[in-house]
Amino acid sequence: MSKTKKDKKDDNLEVVEQALTRSERFIEENQKMITIVVIVILVIVGSWLGFKRFIISPREKEAQSQMFAAEQYFEKDSFNLALNGDGNYLGFLDIMQEYKMTKSANLAQYYSGISYLRLGQFKEALTYLRKFRGKDELVGSIALGAQGDANLQLGNQDEAISAYLKAARKSDNSFTTPIYLFKAAGLIEDSGDFTKAIDLYKEIKEKYPNSNEGRMMDKYIARAENKRKKQ
Question: Which range, of 87-96, 118-127, 149-158, averages the lowest pLDDT?
Fold first, then answer.
């Protein structure tokens, strides 16, 4: 080994040793503080795990039991009963309040939003749909699409288009994606942006040809192209 390489290696070792020495000194000087921090972290983690196991989990089961009846009313289009309960079982609104921090309470936000949408109470629908946090991409997509429907009914066309496009991109599937792309394209065409509308219509035709929307895209493309020529 050349002298230069040996000197360089020795310098590197010295740097490492100095770093280790500084680390050791820091630990020695702050041992009490480090110990306290570690204990606090362990207590926080342990408390959270205990909270989830002994409080959240039992409440989750109870909430699911209560919500079963509300879901049944929802399926039967009895939206007022689904929202407010029947006197024996809680409705979605009460479940959100009684079982906060549970998955059921979050899902109740979704059901409440859809229920208000079906009842024609569009502002209330938006309030709950915006609070819903859906990890399931399909349900999340439907929730965004419902926000688009509510905004459209309230006359908020730009917000409706944005929600429909987000819904379409949230979950790429042949069921919801072409529906929301089609809704967005129709509104965009109405706004006079025929080129963007045509692009969306073509996307539906090319990517989702077997969907109900995909099978009828030729006439919408032709219509938008004719409008663009007349601009």
Answer: 87-96
Overall number of domains in the chain:
2
For residue 77, give the 3-state DSSP assignment. Answer: coil
148 with 118, same domain: the answer is no
Torsion 82-88-94-96 (CA) sign? negative
Q: Is 182 helix (H, G, I), strand (E, B) or coil?
A: helix
- The verdict on 186 and 161 lying in the same domain is yes
pLDDT at site 134: 79
SS3 for 76? coil
What's this model's pTM, rounded to 2 decimal places? Answer: 0.75
Distance CA 220, CA 184 (A): 13
Can you list the positions of beta strands (E) in 50-97?
none
**Residue 211 neighbours by CB distance under 10 Å:** 21
How far apart CA 189 and CA 222 sit, in angstroms, is 12
Neighbours of 69 (CB within 10 A): 17
- Within a 10 A sphere around the Cβ of 85, how many other Cβ atoms? 19
pLDDT score for 218? 96
Contact 65, 74 (CB under 8 A): no
Q: Which residue has the higher pLDDT, 46 or 21?
A: 21
Helices (H) then strands (E): counts for the chain: 12, 0
Q: Are 224 and 200 in contact (CB under 8 A)?
A: no
